[in-house]
Amino acid sequence: MKKANSVEDYIESHEKYKEALNLLRKIILKTDLEETLKWHAPVYTWQGKNVLGLGTFKNHFGIWFFNGVFLKDEHHLLEQAQEKTKGLRQMRFESVHDINKDAVLSYVKEAIKNQKEGKEITASRKGKTVQIPKELEQYLKDNPTLKSAFMALTPGRQREYSDYIESAKRDATKQTRLEKMNPLVLEGKGLYDKYKDC
Fold first, then answer.
1. Which domains does the chain show, CATH number per domain?
2. What is the helix (H) or strand (E) element at residue 50, kind and residue range?
3. pLDDT tens across 44-72, in order?
4. Taking Cα atoms as reference points, which of 54, 52, 59 lies closest to residue 87?
């Protein structure tokens, strides 16, 4: 799928959810958030701070609240994006008919209020050492070129890969992940670089 160059591009390129995304966009634009495009997807900011974004997946679409952990979630609409995410929460939908416009607007307004009050999760990794799991350590030992490339990565990128391998439950999954990370490491890239604002 081609990368979007505007919010309109993004919505047009997701035909399955086009009507629903336009509805969510209309609700969000009733507020004083500024619409922008980050990571090739719509993101809405207040004074340059990310408040929420729109995202689509194979079987659902939704709103990402960057500091959603602070939302009251009175309608029980929020899910934690991943086990490791501290602040991020998402509101998932499968169809335009799932969208309660009043509820969505109230969550968006609350997220804006929280941002204005300075409620946000801040990274606390400063000085934290990288714990390399034994499987990754052995894999790097067996691949000297890869080890050199890995050691040249920033501590944050090393941590991303270490967490990625460590979080796999099965040995087969760990092996698949080790192989998947190989070309990225050799290119000097982090696991999540493609999602970061360049």
1. 7-116 (3.90.1150.200), 134-195 (no CATH)
2. strand 49-56
3. 999 989 999 998 888 899 999 988 889 99
4. 52
